[in-house]
Design brief:
Number of domains of chain B: 1
Strand content of chain B: 25-35%
Bound molecules: adenosine-5'-triphosphate, magnesium ion
Order of helices and strands of chain B: EEEHEEHEEHHHEHEHEHEEHH
CATH architecture of chain B: 3-Layer(aba) Sandwich
Oligomer: heterodimer
Structural class of chain B: alpha/beta
Low-confidence stretches of chain A: 1-27, 92-97, 116-129, 132-141, 211-220
Helix content of chain A: 10-25%
Shape of chain A: globular
Number of domains of chain A: 1
CATH superfamily of chain B: P-loop containing nucleotide triphosphate hydrolases
């Protein structure tokens, strides 16, 4: 009898192997391991950067040297050895591709394994893909169409070359290089990333999408993203990641800055599926990301994330609600399995009058994993009539996993309205049996229940991403289908 | 349709079913009555395949197959349906999505093509009209925020959608108002054919005015201790269970 028990489910979950574990064998141009000012100068010169960019990096590096790596109560890991990592690696290609057809066949194969085959992408109408393998962008599509509207969507390095004034004026204004240990490190050694600028009054007609991927053994990945929505503009930006299986832990320390000018809106969606380590907790990506956006008057930023990967995730997409009546939203699903650890949440900083924020966080813990939500809602003294609604739910799949919720509220204005709801529940055997009794298999049942539980968040994702996210949730929780 | 022989089942080491016998033929309606805690819901759960119960003895033949050897989902796919005494809520999963998944899983099991969206929606309309289920409830999350009566009616709606061979209704009448009771009964009666069968578990004779049983059984202390025609229900309602206890010498 193949009836469901919690223990069987727990066993199934443990046996989940990482679906996208593979390595692409292409020659790479890598700087020797280690970090010092010379390495930074070398990165900068390889990228033919202007002096101000090098100066920025060096200032950040010197600041980083004075900082100490943070510690968190519910996250345990072996700290990366920063002198054992290589800080620059670019696929060995001098020429950028004009069209997808020119892309290295081996890379195409890689993307096919990721389920984002070029063919599929081409047919995916309305999606422009800027594919980042390791640190250098290898292809950008739909560029001309976007250019007609004055939209700039390119790799960060290109932006430094072609739009230095925009980069220089905005970079580091939301996440200063002194912000935290990992942001400082990123500011010193970042190799590439994405840049996006939407001009005044322009509504970007397609979802902008970038696939990040780590492909070089022992290469820390330091992406940098800067999205600027000028007055009255709108953009929806998608970021998705997946990485090949590795034995060595890999560090990822990205910085994402969003700038939403008056009356503009930025929707930033992430599906993150990096290698979480094997079922014994070996290997996996360390994901320490600083993501923050700033809203001017009437502007809106919404972060939506579905996190299923990484061995250790530390991530708090945040909004600074500076302008009056600006809006910040955070919708998150974080799944942890085996020995994964996630410490995610958000910070909503209310500075302007009538600012509003919404936080919907859904944690799912399986195996022996630990899943923490850490949220800060800060209402400053001039933020009259600010409002916040937070809802943090945790779903436990086994008896061995953990869920922790840490909501912090700092309120300095008595007219503020803050609501917080939190629940913790165990996946219901009654619910599963109810599904079984209607002829639904156990795996489908779990998928239905989990997707139902995450619905409010999944609903925020653009259509094609929502489908991908549902698949991911199913893969990471259902047990090996076969 | 179903033949239960000498069924013994326990939970946490405590024996609840103690040698239960029951035979239901196609085209028949059976009512099971009995005091609280007698084991009525346990019988329903054991037949549906809940894994908490240990079957220590006995056999169950369901149209030629050994029911106890089958997984719960396969039992459902073979046409066994249980209308739960306490239907659970599944937040975020619409009734429609839930039923479509169920229907297509059952079809796949039988080697049939999935039901087309058009046919599915037409069936939803037809069956929800049958049990006078508000169309809004059909698209809401499974049982979430439904009133007690709405949950029960939703069970019958699901039954109508899945068209089982054998339906076991566990106290579907409790919590229903007079009108709802009539509607649920009408649903059950409309779906009745000479190829399917219904077992209704109830405490009240009034349901049996609407769903007229061929047999009434008394389940007491884990066994069927008395079987009679529909009039037995009236007698039980009048006299309670004490005389039965006396009759069997307890
Ligand atoms: N998990 C359990 N552990 C121990 N005893 C249990 C457990 N579950 C049910 N029982 C017992 O089994 C007996 C039969 O319960 P069951 O729910 O089948 O009764 P019922 O006939 O359906 O009663 P009712 O008319 O109240 O619905 C009861 O005495 C109940 O307490
Ligand atoms: Mg009962």
């Amino acid at each position: 009898m193949s009836s469901y028990t919690e223990n069987e489910l727990a066993k199934d979950l443990e046996n989940q192997e990482y679906k996208f574990g593979f390595t692409t064998d292409i020659g790479s141009d890598t700087i020797p391991k280690g970090l010092n000012e010379d390495v930074i100068r070398l990165i900068s010169s390889k990228k033919e950067e202007p002096q101000w960019m090098l100066d920025y990096r060096l200032t950040a590096y010197r600041a980083w040297l004075t900082m100490t790596e943070p510690e968190w109560a519910h996250v345990h890991y072996t700290k990366p050895n920063f002198q054992e990592m290589a800080y620059y690696s670019a696929p060995n290609q001098t020429k950028k591709y004009e069209s997808w057809d020119d892309v290295d066949p081996e890379m195409k194969e890689t993307m096919a394994k990721l389920g984002i085959s070029l063919e599929e992408q081409k047919h995916l109408t309305g999606v422009a893909v800027d594919f980042v393998m390791d640190s250098v962008s290898v292809a950008t599509s739909f560029k001309s169409k976007l250019a007609e509207l004055g939209i700039i969507f390119c790799s960060f390095s290109e932006a430094v070359q072609d739009h230095p004034e925009l980069v220089r004026a905005n970079m580091g204004t939301v996440v200063p290089h002194t912000d935290n240990f990992y942001a400082a490190l990123n500011s010193a050694v970042f190799t590439d990333g994405s840049f996006c600028y939407i001009p005044k009054g322009v509504r970007c007609p397609m979802e902008l999408s970038t696939y990040f991927r780590i492909n070089q053994a022992e290469t820390g990945q330091f992406e940098r993203t800067l999205v600027i929505a000028d007055e009255g503009s709108y953009v929806s930006y998608l970021e998705g990641c997946t990485a090949p299986q590795r034995d060595e832990n890999q560090l990822h320390a990205a910085v994402v800055e969003l700038i939403a000018k008056d009356n503009s809106e930025i929707k930033y969606s992430t599906v993150q599926n990096w290698y979480p380590g094997d079922k014994n907790g070996k290997g996996g990506i360390f994901n320490f990301v600083t993501k923050r956006g700033i809203c001017d008057t009437n502007a809106k930023i919404s972060w939506t994330q579905v996190e299923t990967g990484s061995a250790v995730t530390w991530k708090y997409p945040s909004c600074i609600l500076k302008g009056d009546n600006s809006i910040g939203e955070f919708y998150s699903v974080a799944v942890t399995n085996n020995y994964q650890q996630a410490d995610t949440g958000t910070k909503m900083i209310h500075l302007g009058k009538g600012t509003k924020s919404t936080i919907i966080s859904k944690g799912i813990s399986a195996g022996k994993s630990q899943n923490s939500y850490r949220g800060l809602v800060q209402i400053h003294k001039n933020a009259h009539n600010a409002r916040n609604f937070s809802q943090c739910d945790s779903l436990l799949m086994t008896d061995e996993c953990g869920a922790h919720t840490f909501p912090y509220i700092e309120c300095k204005n008595s007219s503020a309205k803050i609501e917080h709801e939190a629940t913790t529940s165990k996946i219901g055997e009654d619910q599963i049996f109810y599904c079984l009794q209607r002829g639904i298999s156990e795996e489908k049942a779990i998928s239905l229940i989990v997707n139902g539980y995450c619905k409010e968040v999944l609903n925020q994702l653009p259509m094609e991403f929502a489908v991908e996210a549902q698949k991911l949730l199913t893969i990471s929780l259902e047990g090996s289908v076969g | 349709m179903i033949t239960i022989k000498n069924l013994h089942a326990s939970i946490n080491g405590k024996e609840i079913l103690k040698g239960l016998n029951l035979e239901v033929k196609a085209g028949e309606v059976h009512a099971i009555m009995g005091p609280n805690g007698a084991g009525k819901s346990t019988l329903a759960s054991v037949l549906a395949g809940r894994s908490d119960y240990e079957i220590t003895e006995g056999e169950v033949d369901f149209d030629g197959i050994d029911l106890l050897e089958m997984s719960p989902e396969d039992r459902a796919r073979e046409g066994l349906f249980l209308a739960f005494q306490y239907p659970v809520e599944i937040p975020g999963v619409s009734n429609i999505n839930f039923l479509r998944t169920a229907i297509n899983e059952i079809r796949a099991y039988k080697g049939e093509e999935p039901m087309s969206a058009k046919e599915f929606m037409a069936t939803v309309r037809e069956k929800s009209a049958l049990v006078e289920l508000d169309a809004k409830l059909a698209s809401r999350s499974v049982n979430e925020g439904f009133s007690g009566g709405e949950k029960k009616r939703n069970e019958i709606f699901q039954m109508a959608m899945l068209e089982p061979k054998l339906a076991i209704l566990d106290e579907t009448d409790s919590g229903l108002d007079i009108d709802a009771l009539r509607i649920v009964a009408k649903g059950v009666n409309t779906l009745k054919t000479d190829k399917n069968a219904t077992v209704v578990i109830t405490h009240y004779q009034r349901l049996l005015d609407h769903i007229v049983p061929d047999f009434v059984h008394v389940l007491y202390d884990g066994k069927i201790v008395k079987t009679g025609p529909k009039e037995l229900a009236l007698e039980l309602e009048e006299k309670g269970y004490d005389w039965i206890k006396e009759e069997i010498g307890q």
